[in-house]
Amino acid sequence: MLSSSRAFPLNVDLQPGKPPILRAEAAGDPLNWVVKHREALRAVVIEYGSVLVRGLGLRKADETSTVFRRLANGLMNEREAFASRRIYSPGVYSSSAWPANQQMCMHHELSYSMEFPGLMLFACLSAPTSGGVTGVADASTVLNALPDEVVKRFVLEGWILTRNYNDEIGASYAQAFGTEDRNAVERYCRANAIEFEWQPDGGLRTRQRRRAIIRHPVTGQLCWFNQIAFLNEWTLAPEIREYLVDVYGEGGLPFNTRFGSGAPIGEDIVQLLNQVYEANTRREPWQIGDLMLVDNIRTAHSREAFEGPREILVGLADAVRPADWSPPQLRTAR
């Protein structure tokens, strides 16, 4: 436990295998409690990368949206979503529409975008009967656990995300870019270093190269920051991958990742990345009313398969747009 005489005026419970947990005494007024402890909460996130606040008693979407706005330095609208979401209010969304029986592997939200949230906010309005944990993993720890040869290649090459937008699976281009206007989509792509190609059937194919490792703007830590494994074909369940390849062809998968050179990323690399994530995952089952703050650069997050109703509100906060997206020098990567 960190006592109030040390870094924070809040007691943070640190246990192996669990995210930092802070037990609030909101006395039926979560908004007032959050306003009072805003700076302390944000300091805890800087120190540990995430914190689960238990005892706030969040129950309603409008109240939760207000809490998110008070905690954030600004909420941002999502662009380039890989799955559809329900919009509760500007910058406040449902969890991504993803089959309940399939895990969402570790990732950093919008790490393939030129602008991404520095802070993620999660609130549990309805907890599942089993599963559904939002796991977290420290990105610097993950980076240090990866083999040197893997890190060096991604430092030198970065990674490429290829997406095929259609109206049948995943987010359509209208959902992802917030418009059906092709000219507006093209302007966005040009402004954000995204190659694009309209398909004969009206769909859209895009390709973007990004860094795999970035330096945290506050702590200076090097962080494994990407969605290389999550959006790769080998993370899909075998039967789902087989079906999608059969229907769309290998080049028509809704998303896939490659080395920055364009070479395929093998199943062995994807398995390695997911194994390292798993070895460093911290978990705590959701309870109704919980709030979680996650530093989106320092901390990856996941969503485990679940049963029963699960309503998690998500806030994308504190937009970050690095001035330099070129790969870091090799000597600084470890």
Automatic annotation (TrEMBL):
The keyword Oxidoreductase applies. GO terms for biological process: antibiotic biosynthetic process. GO terms for molecular function: oxidoreductase activity. Residues 29-313 form the TauD/TfdA-like domain. It comes from the Bacteria. PANTHER family: GAMMA-BUTYROBETAINE HYDROXYLASE-RELATED, TAUD_TFDA-LIKE DOMAIN-CONTAINING PROTEIN. This is Protein AmbD. It comes from Reticulibacter mediterranei.
